[in-house]
Design goal:
With 170 residues, this protein is an alpha+beta fold. Helix content is 28%, strand content 22%. It has a six-stranded antiparallel beta sheet. The chain is globular.
Length: 170
């Protein structure tokens, strides 16, 4: 017996089309909250990122207003920031060894940033790498309400030192 979808419908003339696969932004935040049930997981995840970026020093400063995690790793240029905000990036699976110290990279799935989303409502990434220095700010409540998925890159004056600082607030 032929299934109904195996036989063309009589008089059907519509051309094949595509539909987009989308994810509601609020689900990305929920993923972070479900994957990282320990609120301090973000410290481990961000320290792992620093290790993967060949940092020799990672500083964690905790105050009443913020948690600041900074490193002296390779930092990110604009392409690196774009890759960082690529959900589920496979970069660390294809480049499993760090370039400077030839460390086996810890990161694997490109989702560790969700640990920070689970722990706070606002975070900033300030990074410098070889002539590029910028900040990207992410406010969870504002981002969820916006219709587009873009984050602004705020160029900063060069300091002359590679590395990344992530500040978590609220």
């Amino acid at each position: 017996c032929a299934k109904p979808y195996d036989t063309p419908m009589e008089g059907a003339t519509a051309a094949k089309r595509t539909i987009a696969v989308t994810v509601d932004k609020s689900h990305l935040v929920t993923i972070g909250e479900k994957l990282y049930t320990e609120k301090t997981s973000f410290v481990r995840e961000l320290a792992n990122n620093a290790y993967d970026a060949d940092a020799t020093t990672v500083c964690v400063e905790i105050t009443e207003k913020a948690v600041v995690i900074s490193d002296n790793g390779s930092g990110m240029d604009e392409a690196g920031l774009t890759q960082y905000f690529t959900i589920g990036s496979s970069l660390k699976k294809s480049a499993t060894i760090s370039p400077r110290f030839h460390r086996r990279r810890i990161g694997e799935f490109g989702i560790g940033k969700f640990a920070a989303l689970a722990a706070c409502s606002h975070f900033e990434i300030e990074t410098e790498r070889e002539g590029f220095h910028a900040r990207v700010s992410f406010d969870k409540k504002t981002w969820i309400k916006q219709h587009d998925w873009h984050l602004m890159i705020d160029p900063l004056p060069l300091r002359g030192a590679n590395g990344t600082t992530i500040t978590l607030r609220n």
